[in-house]
Structures are given as structure tokens and as C-alpha cells.
Amino acid sequence: MDEKKVREAIELIRMEINTLEGIENCGRVIEARKKKHIALYNIAIEALEKQLPKKVDMRTEYRDSNGALVCFEGFCPSCGCAVEYYRNKSCNRCTQMLDWSKN
Ligand SMILES: [Zn+2]
After folding, report:
1. Running DSSP on this structure, what letter comes out for residue 98?
2. How far is the CA of 26 from the centre of ligand 1 (A)?
């Protein structure tokens, strides 16, 4: 999914959470549903944020004896799982999209 759309969706969901949080004195049943919806929206935000690439931690370059690049390795910034460039555009464990660019 395109990063701009993901950011817009996160923003819209955050606004919806703010709206829900602003509803007061709505009775116990509605209050319970409100809390449930806020919890679900937060799960959706968490899933959407994983679509936005994050810099790999401790990105390391491996080169052969001629100095040619063999691969990059590092750690997922969200869960700490070891990741390797050629196999991982995203983390296999938590699905976080990875940014392999330098700095
Ligand atoms: Zn991960």
C-alpha cells in the first residue's frame, strides 16, 4: 500500500478515536462499546504503522574478498528479530516493512 494513503488512514483513525473519547455520559453499554472500538482502532493503527518502512537496526554490510557487496544484515526495529536484505523486504516475524537505506 502507498505510504501516503497509510499515513492518511492512520490520521483518520486517530481522529475517530478522539471523537469517541469526546463522547461522555453515554451509559454503561455504550461506554463498553466505545472502549472496544477504541481498542480495535488502536490495533488497526499498529498494523498500518507496520506498512511504513522503518530503518533496520545495526545494518551491517558483508563484502567478499574483492570488496563486492554480498548482503546486508540487521535487526528488525519493531521486534528485534534478525533480518537479511535479500530475503526480507519485511520482517518475517512481525511483518514490519524494512528500510535498508544507509542512515
Ligand atoms: Zn519484526
Report:
1. E
2. 39
pTM above 0.85, yes or no: no
Q: Cα of 95 to ligand 1 centre, how many Å?
A: 6
| Residue 92 CA to ligand 1 centre (angstroms) | 7
Distance of CA 8 from the midpoint of ligand 1 (Å): 23
Q: What is the pLDDT of residues 53-67, one digit of tens each?
A: 999 999 998 999 999
How far is Cα 97 from Cα 50, in angstroms, rounded to an integer? 6
Q: Within 10 A of 29 (CB to CB), how many other CB atoms are there?
A: 8
Domain ranges of the chain: 3-49, 54-99
